[in-house]
Prior knowledge:
Strand order of the largest sheet: 1-2
Order of helices and strands: HHHHEHHEH
Number of strands: 2
Number of helices: 7
Structural class: mainly alpha
Radius of gyration: 20 Å
Oligomer: single chain
Amino acid sequence: MTKWFFSALFFLFQTNIEAQLSDFKSVNFENADKIALNLKGADLSNLPGLAYNLTNSLTSDVEKFRAIYTWVCTNIENDYYGYRKNHSKRVKFQKDTIEQYKWNAGFSKQVFIKLLKEKKTICTGYAYLIKKLSKFG
Length: 137
């Protein structure tokens, strides 16, 4: 019974991946990538404006997301120092959830300020920026 179950699960999983990959064979990302690269260095002070500039001429949500993703990947730098600082504090406070919560709340504000001013961030900053740009786009 278990062998049959895992075989069926594998078949469904494999079919699902192939279906998702085939959905992208018809999508041409050239326009999305070109727009993102042409906006290299754009300012983060007006996120709705940036999102509009990245997505207004694209027709599908997939292309719009690609333009946002490409722009973020080519314009935002990883903040390794911020990552190390965050990691060490999380380890330090791993048994004290109240202190960890306080640290995280304060540090999150610093992460977003640094993202907007210096275009450097850690994982949460990338997620925040993509979410915001996708919401406006």
